[in-house]
Design brief:
The chain is built from 4 helices and 11 strands. It has 198 residues and is α+β, with helices and mostly antiparallel strands.
């Protein structure tokens, strides 16, 4: 598990706890069609699973109605991929194929992946109340807490359903009013820097 900055573990199986798998299923009317970051110990049990590290889910086809992504946090030097690549693929699956996508991501709101693919492109975000989400290790609740807070990000068309399900797990924010807006911050000169010009 990493904080999205450097690899501190070679372990690829940091499983989603059952309560969050159940919540994702509820948003998706009971069916998760794709898990592109699966493992033999995953509780997700999607209809299609790309098993890391043998199958690089990032390089595979994502045209599925519902997708749940518990992405690798940090950089994969072997494949040359980073967390931003996974989040970009989530946004792309929704935009290009109309997929409903939920991703479990580290809360790092100052990063490029949040600025470019979440703030004004996602539908909603749930900042999870778990202080340090405990990922499953080899399918068991024996792992350490995450090194930072986590959030569920939703790209889809049913904000209300996402809200109704995830409000039990944290603070849910509707990002739809930000869609297509130029979002930035005032720098020291009073000028606004546009973060989503890409």
């Amino acid at each position: 598990m990493t904080a999205g900055r450097k690899v501190i573990s070679q372990k690829k199986d940091w499983g989603t706890p059952q309560k969050y798998v159940d919540a994702v299923r509820e948003v998706f009317d009971g069916v998760i069609h794709l898990d592109p970051c699966s493992s033999p110990f995953s509780l997700v049990k999607a209809k299609t699973e790309y098993m890391l590290p043998k199958v690089d889910g990032l390089s595979q086809f994502w045209n599925f109605p519902t997708i749940y992504v518990n992405l690798p946090y940090g950089n994969d030097a072997e494949r040359g991929t980073r967390i931003i690549d996974w989040i970009q693929k989530c946004e792309e699956a929704h935009r290009v194929f109309g997929s409903e996508v939920i991703a479990l991501v580290p809360v790092a709101t100052n990063t490029t992946h949040w600025k470019d693919y979440i703030y004004n492109k996602a539908t909603a975000v749930c900042f999870l109340y778990d202080t340090r989400l405990r990922f499953l290790v080899d399918g068991k609740d024996e792992g350490k807490g995450a090194p930072m807070s986590c959030a569920m990000v939703y790209w889809g068309k049913n904000y209300q359903r996402f809200f109704d399900v995830f409000i039990k797990h944290g603070a849910v924010l509707n990002l739809e009013p930000l869609r297509g807006k130029k979002i930035g911050f005032a720098n020291g000169n009073g000028k606004v820097k546009n973060w989503n010009s890409r």
